[in-house]
Amino acid sequence: MNQASNVNEATIREPLGIIDTDVHQSPKRKQDLLPYLPKVWHEQYLTYGSGLANVFPTPIGVSRKDATPEGGGPAGSDPHFMLKHHVEHYGIDYAILTGGSEASFALHPDLDYASAVIRAYNDHTVENWLTVDPRFKGSIAVNVSDPEEAVKEIERLGDHPDMVQIIVCSGVRAPYGQRFYHPIYEAAERYGLPIAFHPGTEGKMYPPTPVGYPTRYMEWHNIIPLTFMAHVNSLVCEGVFEKFPGLKFVGIEGGVAWLPHLMWRMDKNYKALRSQTPWLKRLPSEYIKEHIRLTTQPIEEPERPGEFLQILQMIDAEKTIMYSSDYPHWDFDNPKVVLPPMPRELKARILAGTAAELYGLPLKKTGKAEVNS
Amino acid sequence: MNQASNVNEATIREPLGIIDTDVHQSPKRKQDLLPYLPKVWHEQYLTYGSGLANVFPTPIGVSRKDATPEGGGPAGSDPHFMLKHHVEHYGIDYAILTGGSEASFALHPDLDYASAVIRAYNDHTVENWLTVDPRFKGSIAVNVSDPEEAVKEIERLGDHPDMVQIIVCSGVRAPYGQRFYHPIYEAAERYGLPIAFHPGTEGKMYPPTPVGYPTRYMEWHNIIPLTFMAHVNSLVCEGVFEKFPGLKFVGIEGGVAWLPHLMWRMDKNYKALRSQTPWLKRLPSEYIKEHIRLTTQPIEEPERPGEFLQILQMIDAEKTIMYSSDYPHWDFDNPKVVLPPMPRELKARILAGTAAELYGLPLKKTGKAEVNS
């Protein structure tokens, strides 16, 4: 740099805003949910929970050891500790709370039990998290296996000013394009709420791959994105975005770099086979770029970081990709260092710009000197 | 160009060799298999075939209309017509015959029936195709659901000079890394034969996605690569390439551009979770690049062709990717025009170099003027 003013601009700039689109909060104890849950379900909930088995436990635990609150309880269960340990530590403008295991109750055979637990989780979030700090924004969990009840839950909470999206689990009974789910989409569009899906239930309803069960957690985790590809494919081909043109979907924690391949394969097949989907008016990739958002964590890290930037350019990342940390889980991504070198404008869009638009959240400048951005 | 000699060199060069790694041959009629099939299975074979239902028929037929032989019979059933219509028309050095539906018999509950039909197909190929022209090279189909019989079939035909690989279907009972299959891999390594898997049976054993069934052929076809990712993931994580260091796998007709994502996700998870796979000594991506080959058809065609070239560079395509046409099927890729602009050396590797090494096939220069290469 030749001029002092330029040096100054380059080294002390406004920090970029940060919206963390995947932060996991939970009650401190199962008992904390009981005030929100009809008494008839208490014993089942306390004793059996979701009823889902876990044959692929992580060998290193689910959460960061340092995220355990000072006052005790599991990681992610204390809003004040989370504010200090995560939100304020990284200067995060908004933390989109995506919950714990509640959405997974949608796989329970008893729809009434599942919907009751999911409602209780939502009430617990509203009363114990959204009241604590305006930087916390909530996701309305719904029982996606019972669209009628899901619509009622959206109507019950959809006007809450701090509820910014609907959340469901990604491992479910049928691909998300299918008509069974459309009443939920009508309600989501009516309330202007995106629908996010998050992994965890893969393999609990059907085998998690088209060829059966993998052997252990690492293999299971490696192929979580298969579920995401199946949903994106279905959402587009079934014409969901022609039927609900205002609807957006968010794929959380399912990877990013598979999107070019899926878009290209879908576009190519559409040209030859579109007689099967006469309701589509544009290329599949056009629907994807307009209606699908993916979050970054766990971000792909090629040996040559420039290759990930090439992938981002293939998928119009400035409008499709949003930063997420997955706090407080083990594979957390630090917003200050996780993104590879890229133009500042793109970085600003990924760290906050796209999420601010999607969720209708105003970004304020903080005036602090920028570090590592 | 300034010099006439340069113009000459640039426009009239030796043509590149071409090895087509996916060409489908079949008997003309089901009856043609009967001489090779024990009589006890004749009625079942003629009446019920593989016994597999097809709820996702292609709306435009399976084969190119112009590939129907002049003498009648289905496309791909006449070796002399195929030589004229495909092999000689494009100047193909070798056509790797991958068969029809025989590998799919591995999903039949009766292992004896399946193995008998598969043996009959192999014998039909040996007698009716490999004898016709040295440019035809065969794949030994095996009943992958019965490793003991599969090994016997490899031992029966593995020394045939024109059999260059083993072929199985991709939609099967379990991911290909699992120990159930290892006796087959021991035999394949012993005979120096790669193992190829080819789609078609996806969704016939389990749902073809982790969230159930898609709705129609286009959606089903769009997500065939999910099966391939599941197999590559399993093969690496289960340590197949430490146990069988000479073994190579070929993923036919399952796409290419998903590989960077899978490699990066596997490498990242390996760093955190490798306590689960202590037998691995290198990064997953290193095993993939050394032991997995993918074929091009149906090639991905982004709006900006340079993006596909970027993908090829991410996966060391000069040693991992091989040209295939899928002749005579509807989504055939023409070797003269299908590859996007790329360095001539890379093109030569994809069109023939890597396949020549893998299958041990000598390439001769033909001396014809090059067209479109």
Automatic annotation (TrEMBL), chains A, B:
Any GO CC annotation of this UniProt entry: cytoplasm
Domain Amidohydrolase-related stretches: 19-361
Biological process terms in GO annotation: secondary metabolic process
Domain of life: Bacteria
A Pfam family reported for this protein in Swiss-Prot or TrEMBL: Amidohydro_2
GO molecular function terms attached to this record: carboxy-lyase activity; hydrolase activity
Coiled-coil region: none
PANTHER family: 2-AMINO-3-CARBOXYLMUCONATE-6-SEMIALDEHYDE DECARBOXYLASE, ISO-OROTATE DECARBOXYLASE (EUROFUNG)
Name this protein carries in UniProt: Amidohydrolase-related domain-containing protein
